[in-house]
Amino acid sequence: PIKVAILDFEAEPDNPNSGKIFTSIFMDALMEITYGKYIPLERNKISEILKEFSLKQAGLIDEDDSKEIGKLVGADAVIIGKVTLWKKGTIFKQAAVGYTARCVTVETGKILWYSSLSQTIWRNALEQRKPEIIAKDAALKGLNKIKYVLFKARL
Questions:
Q1: What angle do CA 9, 14, 15 make, to 5 degrees?
Q2: Per DSSP, what are the bridge partners of residue 4?
Q3: Which of 9, 14, 98, 136 is the S-S candidate for 19 at Cβ 3.0 to 4.6 Å?
């Protein structure tokens, strides 16, 4: 198994909570797809490290920072990402979610994998017009596209 620190995804500018919401959804999807190949580390420990570095503001964590944070929390790799689309649907407009994510090794900085997806869905039910509802589907579809790479990844 690969121990991963999943850092909060950078939020879509018009939706400041989208990064935190999608990070949790993405972590669940990764666990579902990979059956324990990736073991996420405790998010509270990662948050404490981020506070110490004062890096929690959107856009301030680059790959070098993520490697350092990964070392401090005992991770083999770090997942960093960005929510690129987060739109609530209406009866006239589709709900939409998009993201990019990459997994970087702590030791070498090598990118193990990269995943991205943008998805729009037309739903009739009011509760299904929320981006949170389609976000897990988007994460699962994006990760399924690279499933082979996820399992073949080596540190």
A1: 50
A2: 40, 77
A3: 9
pLDDT tens-digit map of 2-60: 899 898 899 999 999 999 999 999 999 998 988 888 888 877 777 777 776 665 444 55
Q: Vertex 30, ends 75 and 67: CA angle to 5°? A: 25
- Specify burial of residue 147 (Cβ count, 10 A radius: 0-12, 13-18, 19+): exposed
The torsion defined by the Cα of 131, 136, 138 and 140, in degrees rounded to 10, comes to: 180
Look-up of token digits 């990764």: 30
DSSP classification of residue 57 = S
Question: Which residue carries 């506070």 as its tokens?
Answer: 51
Q: CA-based angle 32:63:108, to the nearest 5?
A: 85
Residue linked to tokens 């949790």: 24
Per-residue model confidence as pLDDT tens digits over 135-145 = 888 888 888 88
The single residue listed with the structure tokens 């770090």 is 78
The tokens describing 127, both together, are 């509760």
Beta strands in 21-110 (DSSP E): 38-40, 77-87, 95-105
Q: How far apart are CA 25 and CA 8, in angstroms?
A: 11
